[in-house]
């Protein structure tokens, strides 16, 4: 899948460069530059045709909509993956903290329950197969 993406990237880069050159020619247009402008416009049309041919090779590529938000904000879309990983790590730490808190709560609850309801807790542990002696 890398080759089709690289081909598309190459075609897009050439297209962008051609449009940049057209912009320069048009910004400072001189009548003697008409032939060069016509050639650049033909190159642009050819480039669009080449890009259109490549679309079938990359139609299975799915881009998250958030990547387009990054581009619209003028941010580097390659930072999207980095930000996603950072968000996942932060969320992972939060979830791990919650799991640890629930484990401590469970242990504390079992200690308290064993002092108030020792017989019931012994039955509970027997049903669960928990071999720890009640405290």
Structure description:
The protein is mostly helical and 135 residues long. 77% of the residues lie in helices and 0% in strands. The protein has helices spanning 2-27, 34-54, 65-72, 79-116, 118-128. The two termini are 61 Å apart. It holds the Pfam family Med10. Component of the Mediator complex. Keywords: Activator, Nucleus, Transcription, Transcription regulation. This is Mediator of RNA polymerase II transcription subunit 10.
Largest sheet: none
Mean pLDDT: 89
Beta content comes to: under 5%
Shape: rod-shaped
Secondary structure class reads mainly alpha
Q: Poorly predicted ranges (pLDDT <50, ≥5 residues)?
A: none
Number of strands: 0
Distance between the termini: 61 Å
Query: Percent helix among the residues?
Result: over 70%
Oligomer class: single chain
Evaluate the radius of gyration. 32 Å
The number of distinct helices, counting runs of at least 4 residues, comes to: 5
SSE order in H/E notation? HHHHH
Protein name: Mediator of RNA polymerase II transcription subunit 10
InterPro entries: Mediator_Med10
GO molecular function, one term: transcription coregulator activity
GO cellular component, one term: mediator complex
């Amino acid at each position: 899948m890398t080759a089709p993406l690289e081909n598309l990237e190459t075609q897009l880069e050439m297209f962008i460069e051609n449009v940049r050159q057209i912009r320069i020619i048009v910004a400072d247009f001189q009548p003697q530059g008409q032939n060069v402008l016509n050639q650049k416009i033909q190159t642009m049309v050819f480039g669009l045709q080449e890009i259109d041919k490549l679309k079938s090779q990359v139609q299975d590529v799915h881009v998250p909509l958030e990547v387009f938000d990054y581009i619209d904000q003028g941010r580097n879309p390659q930072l999207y993956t980095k930000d996603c990983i950072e968000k996942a790590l932060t969320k992972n730490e939060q979830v791990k903290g919650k799991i640890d808190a629930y484990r401590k709560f469970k242990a504390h609850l079992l200690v308290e329950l064993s002092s108030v309801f020792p017989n019931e807790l012994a039955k509970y542990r027997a049903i669960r197969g928990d071999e720890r002696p009640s405290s």
